[in-house]
């Protein structure tokens, strides 16, 4: 029985800041942002969007009534959850009207969370082949204004349904993974901003990829020539390129050129959204599938997931015969086209507009946010969500 990704979609806020303008305002050569790390635009989330609403908006795009009835497990991967007890999945479950006879949980391991959710979902479908699992990867990356990590911020969510006989990508059985206690990136419970050792994180990412790739080759018998493309977790779009370059050396030239070209296509969406943590690998997959129009059915796609702290995994999937019928290419094109550029001062003001942490009641103006699902405020320490489409 084939198990894998049946549907996939994403959502990013309607606001962005231009990286050239951000660089100039920070007295930095714009090339360091646009070429050095490979970022052109950075999504800016208004206060009416959090990890719950981003995920719910992403899922709203792909789910129909039949999906909502078949889904009996919602798994939400995030490192920017909104509650230390109640899972973000429960909020999404209610906002979307999913079958009440379902499990709903939140999982966490930095940017690896959504991959852990997918692997968990595969096991569930193997035991319950008539059901579907909704997997969500949603985050808002915050490092602080004028911080060293500011240029690698972003916001967005990816939603996937995992099922038997999937429409898009059948996931193969073999995968390779590893864990090591590394302090390359972390966010203590008392902080709304992350801490990062950038040099160490880059080194660990590259090292993890080399190790799990070797392990995967030994397990599967596959080599680079067997892949049409390899997609990566992308905290910034040059990161995957740095990890891929060393392993390409022994591949035939035509294989090297194919993988490098397809890697570049896979970064298109990420370079215009920024880092979305748990969803970034799957945003790069969406970019590849929607932007590379001549990807053939039966192609093998590799996926490298990395979550600081650290856990890494390499796995693969086979493109299904009619996978293009399940994509939301036009919808995503329109979403990008309708975004609004904000100035750097406007971005800074939006960044500083945060929710109260003392239990204060607050009502937010959701009419300024075109998203269908928004955070409307806080009452008695409870977040108030609104689905405008209901």
Question: Topology of this structure?
Answer:
Layout: E1 3-11, E2 15-18, H1 19-25, H2 30-36, E3 41-43, H3 51-62, H4 65-70, E4 71-77, H5 88-96, E5 103-107, H6 113-127, E6 132-141, E7 154-164, E8 169-171, E9 176-179, E10 185-186, E11 195-196, H7 198-220, E12 229-232, H8 237-248, H9 253-266, H10 280-291, E13 300-307, E14 311-319, H11 329-337, E15 340-342, H12 344-352, E16 362-363, E17 373-379, E18 382-387
Parallel strand pairs: 2-15, 4-5, 4-6, 12-13
Antiparallel strand pairs: 1-7, 1-8, 2-3, 6-7, 8-14, 9-14, 10-11, 13-14, 16-17, 17-18
What does this structure look like?
- The chain is an alpha+beta fold and 390 residues long.
- The chain has two domains: 3-170 and 327-387, 3-Layer(aba) Sandwich (Peroxisomal Thiolase, Chain A, domain 1), CATH 3.40.47.10; 171-324, Peroxisomal Thiolase, Chain A, domain 1 (3-Layer(aba) Sandwich).
- Helices cover 35% and strands 25% of the residues.
- It has helices at 19-25, 30-36, 51-62, 65-70, 88-96, 113-127, 198-220, 237-248, 253-266, 280-291, 329-337, 344-352, and strands spanning 3-11, 15-18, 41-43, 71-77, 103-107, 132-141, 154-164, 169-171, 176-179, 185-186, 195-196, 229-232, 300-307, 311-319, 340-342, 362-363, 373-379, 382-387.
- Strands 1, 4, 5, 6, 7, 8, 9, 12, 13 and 14 form a ten-stranded mixed β-sheet that branches. A three-stranded mixed β-sheet has the order 3-2-15. A three-stranded antiparallel β-sheet has the order 16-17-18.
- The chain is globular, with a radius of gyration of 20 Å.
- It starts with a strand and ends with a strand.
- 48% of the residues are buried.
- Pfam families: HMG_CoA_synt_C (PF08540), HMG_CoA_synt_N (PF01154).
């Amino acid at each position: 029985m084939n198990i894998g990704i049946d549907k996939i979609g994403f959502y990013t806020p309607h606001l962005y800041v231009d990286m050239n303008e951000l660089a100039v305002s920070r007295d930095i050569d714009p090339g360091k942002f646009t070429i050095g790390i490979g970022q052109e635009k950075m999504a800016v989330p208004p206060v009416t969007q959090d990890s719950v609403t981003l995920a719910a908006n992403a899922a709203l795009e792909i789910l129909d009534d039949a999906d909502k009835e078949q889904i009996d497990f919602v798994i939400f991967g995030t490192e920017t959850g909104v509650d230390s007890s109640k899972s973000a999945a429960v909020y999404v479950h209610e906002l979307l009207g999913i079958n009440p006879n379902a499990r709903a949980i939140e999982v966490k391991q930095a940017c690896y969370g959504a991959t852990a959710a997918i692997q968990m979902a595969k096991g569930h479908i193997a035991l319950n082949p008539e059901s579907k699992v909704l997997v969500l990867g949603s985050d808002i990356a915050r490092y602080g204004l004028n911080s060293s990590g500011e240029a690698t911020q972003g916001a967005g969510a990816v939603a996937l349904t995992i099922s038997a006989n999937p429409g898009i990508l059948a996931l193969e059985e073999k995968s390779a993974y590893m864990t090591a206690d590394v302090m390359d990136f972390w966010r203590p419970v008392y902080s709304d901003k992350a801490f990062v050792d950038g040099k160490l994180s880059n080194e660990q990412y590259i090292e993890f990829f080399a190790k799990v790739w070797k392990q995967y080759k030994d397990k599967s018998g596959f080599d680079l020539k067997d892949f049409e493309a390899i997609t990566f977790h992308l905290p910034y779009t040059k990161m995957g390129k740095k990890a891929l370059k060393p392993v390409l050396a022994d591949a035939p030239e035509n294989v090297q050129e194919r993988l490098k070209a397809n890697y570049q296509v896979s970064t298109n969406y990420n370079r215009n959204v920024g880092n979305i943590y748990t969803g970034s690998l799957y945003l790069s997959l969406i970019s590849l599938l929607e932007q590379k129009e001549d990807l053939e059915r039966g192609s093998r796609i590799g996926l490298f997931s990395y979550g600081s702290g650290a856990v890494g995994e390499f796995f693969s999937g086979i493109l299904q015969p009619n996978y293009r019928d399940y994509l939301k290419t036009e919808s995503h094109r329109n979403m990008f086209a309708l975004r609004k550029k904000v100035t750097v001062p406007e971005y800074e003001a939006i960044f500083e507009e945060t929710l109260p942490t003392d239990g204060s009641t607050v009502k937010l103006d959701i009419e300024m946010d075109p998203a269908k699902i928004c955070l409307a405020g806080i009452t008695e320490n409870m977040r108030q969500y609104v689905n405008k489409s209901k």
